[in-house]
Write a structure and sequence with these properties.
With about 200 residues, this protein is α+β, with helices and mostly antiparallel strands. Among the domains are: about 60 residues, OB fold (Dihydrolipoamide Acetyltransferase, E2P), CATH 2.40.50.140; about 40 residues, Helicase, Ruva Protein, domain 3 (Orthogonal Bundle). The chain is built from nine helices and five strands, in the order βββαββαααααααα. It has a five-stranded antiparallel sheet with strand order 3-2-1-4-5. α2 packs across α3 and α7 packs across α8.
Length: about 200
Amino acid sequence: MIGRLRGTLISKQPPWLMIEVGGIGYELEAPMSTIYDLPPNGKEVTLLTHYAVKEDSVALYGFMHESERALFRSLQKVSGIGAKIALAVLSGVSTDHFARLVQTGDVVALTKIPGIGKKTAERIVIELRDRVDGLTSVSGTRVGGVDVPLDAAGEATVALQQLGYKPAEVTRLVQKVAADGDNAEAIIRKALRAALGG
């Protein structure tokens, strides 16, 4: 099993990353919470990983903090939640905020995360209430040092759709929050806040 990778960050196209370790390029999926904290391409980075093997696929997920990986794993123990929804949760809210939503039983707020309906939100509250006490995130949503793409809004649109938001909703969110000079990560962050009412 692969538990950690340390190497050179080659590329980041949310939710995908590539890290070169000893001449091998590892592709990973990561939540936006991790992508916000990444250094610029070409710099060294260390990520905790979750290695998932299914009948028809193998996947590697990367996380900057242990609290993110722990929540990712805990979420998938809830019936009806897979890796895609778990990544959407981590992309939409911090581990601290998620823990508060679960502890207070805020089903309405949980249903604002893509892929989570009322029944799934209720299951999350019931099944994870006792497990979220130890989840604390390291604050930090650094965006500096990231290359601004030619079309930041377009890159943000693709990333938000890959996180599970519907195209029409993504278009509305991006138009609402995008400002001149914003890079894709800034647009994604503001769009996620707007989508979750934050």
